[in-house]
Amino acid sequence: MKRFSIYSVLAILLFSLTSCEAVGTVFEAGKWYGIILAVIIVGVLFFLFGRGKK
Question: Domain of life here (predicted)?
Answer without folding.
Answer: Bacteria
